[in-house]
TrEMBL record:
<comment type="similarity">
    <text>Belongs to the NtaA/SnaA/DszA monooxygenase family.</text>
</comment>
<keyword id="KW-0285">Flavoprotein</keyword>
<protein>
    <submittedName>
        <fullName>F420-dependent methylene-tetrahydromethanopterin reductase</fullName>
    </submittedName>
</protein>
<feature type="binding site">
    <location>
        <position position="163"/>
    </location>
    <ligand>
        <name>FMN</name>
    </ligand>
</feature>
<dbReference type="InterPro" id="IPR016215">
    <property type="entry name" value="NTA_MOA"/>
</dbReference>
<dbReference type="GO" id="GO:0004497">
    <property type="term" value="F:monooxygenase activity"/>
</dbReference>
<dbReference type="InterPro" id="IPR036661">
    <property type="entry name" value="Luciferase-like_sf"/>
</dbReference>
<keyword id="KW-0503">Monooxygenase</keyword>
<keyword id="KW-0288">FMN</keyword>
<dbReference type="GO" id="GO:0016705">
    <property type="term" value="F:oxidoreductase activity, acting on paired donors, with incorporation or reduction of molecular oxygen"/>
</dbReference>
<dbReference type="InterPro" id="IPR051260">
    <property type="entry name" value="Diverse_substr_monoxygenases"/>
</dbReference>
<dbReference type="Pfam" id="PF00296">
    <property type="entry name" value="Bac_luciferase"/>
</dbReference>
<dbReference type="InterPro" id="IPR011251">
    <property type="entry name" value="Luciferase-like_dom"/>
</dbReference>
<feature type="binding site">
    <location>
        <position position="109"/>
    </location>
    <ligand>
        <name>FMN</name>
    </ligand>
</feature>
<feature type="domain" description="Luciferase-like">
    <location>
        <begin position="39"/>
        <end position="401"/>
    </location>
</feature>
<feature type="binding site">
    <location>
        <position position="234"/>
    </location>
    <ligand>
        <name>FMN</name>
    </ligand>
</feature>
<keyword id="KW-0560">Oxidoreductase</keyword>
Length: 457
């Protein structure tokens, strides 16, 4: 967790004040959502999405963000009963939300591995028109054969091939989005006769991944093209982001770690002919508020215990150990056995960020022994360690400090309940940011998502 005292004081009062950018993440289908909360509602009911979106818009967030799962997760060969509640199609939900919101951006996660450029570009362009220029696309490459089994091509692509496909996918999509003149150009031409070729360009792409020849079916949207969001963190992912992304959904939420990531990725842009402001970096963060710091810490502990039940703690450990640990006491010490090396993990359908389970286990044992942590305590440390814990004033000051000192351009806020997880943040933290003059008090009328984020048109 991060408190206001954990970040260094600003070093200069002469720097231009940066505006904080915030996005709202709809609670995921995982253990970080407290399903036993009294305000918990259905994960698939449109009323839940409506409350979430309209509340985020009340808080003047730049955009809302939906993840997408292409297959139900499995654990030890069975559907993972700790986190399965269903998830509807992202584009269908965003299209519905376009009708019940007016200003907030609508960003959906969609795979470049299991879609085709022409079809997806058309769907995103449609959303961009329906929403008045508020659409965004979070590109994922989908990492394993487990998901691929749901698709006709089956299997999956190697990591390097996934990024190669994704980069060409985006290039083709951009050709399709740019091939037809804007509505404004068409309106200017409407007074006289003109041929379709005057307004619509043929896309004729032939590359190693795609062969696409045809005319797009829609003119450019009000913002020209949907905003591109990306979350890759590897060397390939950072390179792809520096060439392609306009927003990075980062996991580097710590102050010093965030500054290093920010400096690395922003430092790559000049070589790509891009300005530093053409890419926004928004780490995902959680929060717990209290009237006092002590109250916030206590609420954080209580919430963490709800997020990490005893069975969740064992399941989390099994993902690293690669074997059944059902016989271990979650309130006891870590297993003395070493992780099992296997190509197919005990949990399928969840991204793994570690490549050396044995090293992870050794590090965890050292930490647990030094601090007297049980299995559940340790899992809470890694799976439910809330990013910002404190009073609304403390949290607002910490967010602002990260932005002003180049640890991020803002944050993707993740609540712990569905759909009310952002309510307290909107009510108590947003006014503090506004009072400091670093966060909008109103949307600019008619602004597209690209304009709201301060991205080049």
């Amino acid at each position: 967790m991060t408190l206001i005292s954990d970040a260094p004081a600003p070093t200069s009062t002469e720097r231009p004040v940066k505006q904080v950018h915030l996005a709202a993440h709809f609670p995921g289908v995982n253990n970080t959502t407290v399903w036993r909360d009294s305000n918990q509602a259905s994960q698939i009911a449109f009323s839940s999405f409506t409350h979430f979106a309209q509340n985020a818009e009340r808080g003047k967030f730049d955009f809302l963000f939906l993840a997408e799962g292409l297959r139900l997760r499995e654990h030890k060969g069975r559907i993972h009963d700790l986190d399965v509640v269903g998830r509807p199609n992202t584009l269908a939900v965003l299209a519905g939300l376009a009708a019940v919101t007016s200003h907030i951006g609508l960003v959906g996660t969609l795979s470049s591995t299991f879609n085709e450029p022409y079809e997806l570009a058309r769907q995103l362009a449609s959303l961009d028109h329906l929403s008045g220029g508020r659409a965004g696309w979070n590109i994922v490459t989908t990492f394993d054969a487990f998901h691929g089994e749901n698709f006709r091509r089956g299997a999956f692509l190697d990591k390097a091939d996934r990024y190669t496909r994704a980069e060409e996918f985006v290039a083709v999509a951009r050709q399709l989005w740019d091939a037809w003149a804007t509505d404004a150009v068409l309106a200017d031409k409407a007074a006289g006769d003109f041929l379709a070729e005057d307004a619509i360009g043929l896309v004729d792409h032939h590359g190693p991944q795609f062969d696409v020849t045809g005319f797009p079916t829609l003119p450019q949207s009000p913002q020209g093209r949907p905003v591109i969001v990306q979350a890759g963190d590897s060397a390939d992912g950072r390179g792809f982001a520096s060439r392609t992304a306009e927003v990075i959904f980062s996991r580097h939420a710590g102050f010093e770690d965030g500054q290093k990531f920010y400096s690395d990725v922003k430092g790559r842009l000049a070589a790509e002919g891009r300005h530093r402001d053409s890419l926004k970096i928004l780490p995902a963060v959680t929060f717990i508020l209290g009237d006092t710091e002590a109250e916030a810490r206590e609420r954080s502990r209580e919430t963490a215990l709800l997020q990490v039940s005893p069975q969740t703690a064992i399941a989390f450990l099994e993902q690293v150990w690669g074997t059944d640990l059902g016989g271990y006491d979650p309130d006891g010490p870590l297993p003395e056995i070493d992780p099992v090396s296997t190509d197919q993990g005990v949990t399928r359908g969840r991204v793994r960020h570690d490549s050396d389970p044995a090293a992870i286990a050794r590090g965890w044992r050292t930490l647990a022994e030094a601090e007297g942590l049980s299995i559940r305590d340790l899992v809470i440390r890694f799976a439910a360690n809330h990013t910002f814990v404190g009073t609304p004033v403390q949290v607002a000051e910490t967010i602002n400090r990260h932005v002003q000192e180049d640890a991020s351009d803002g944050f993707v806020i993740v609540g712990s309940t569905n759909p009310t997880g952002l309510d307290e943040f909107v009510d108590r933290v947003i006014p503090e940011l506004q009072e400091r003059g670093v966060y909008r008090t109103e949307y600019e009328e008619g602004a597209t998502l690209r304009h709201t984020l301060g991205l080049p048109v």
